Amino acid sequence: MATLLHIDSSVFPGSASTSRAVTDAFRKAWEEQHPEGTVIYRDLAANPVPHINADAHTAGFAAPDTHTPEQAAAFAERVRLIEELEQADAILIGAPMYNFAIPSTLKAWLDNVLLIGRTAMTEESKVKGTPVTVVASRGGSYAPGTPREPYEYVQNYLEAILRDTLALDLAFIVPELTMAPQNPAMSELIPLFEASRTKALDDAAAKAKELAERLAA
């Protein structure tokens, strides 16, 4: 049966987080299609992975038999995360926008799993072509033609990492205007937020079913 790697990074729990609500809709639809499948779940807000340090970085460019004890320990954590990624038949990532970028916890995970010669820049990568769905929620709108379009760094960055470097099959679901219900200055945008959220939830369920059918074929 297929394996889904599900990663959340929102600092807000449960339904207080739009990205979590949408990834949950995806996961439920996925599990309906794969009741006996495997889900590997990581909540990076509750259980952050280590940020890359010098030992973890340099160990990636050195033969294992030359690693110092510190390098070996740091690299073992990277390998554990990479093996989870390599096991996945599909990947689901919740990536809310904080201060125009992804959460630092998600950046740390990406830094750990991007290993040149294993997951990146090699034809022998086991993750190449794996479908990844990113729920890129944001408080406002950064869509083409909007005043804040120049500040859209989340999708641009993740395209560079996930699609161009890790060679994953990338798709985005983008619920926006999530701050409208909390910010009185955005109250007139609440209907647009609600429509965006509903569409994101529907898109997530549809995408999960589509991937399940593709993998089963």
Characterization of this structure:
- The chain has 217 residues and is an alpha/beta fold.
- The chain is 41% helix and 12% strand.
- The protein has helices at 18-33, 54-59, 69-87, 104-113, 154-165, 190-216; strands at 3-8, 38-43, 90-94, 131-135, 169-173.
- A five-stranded parallel β-sheet has the order 2-1-3-4-5, sandwiched between helices.
- α5 links the parallel β4 (131-135) and β5.
- The longest helix is centred in the C-terminal third of the chain and has 27 residues, at 190-216.
- The two termini are 12 Å apart.
- This is FMN dependent NADH:quinone oxidoreductase.
Quickly describe the structure:
It comes from Streptomyces lutosisoli. The protein is of the alpha/beta class and 217 residues long. Helices cover 41% and strands 12% of the residues.
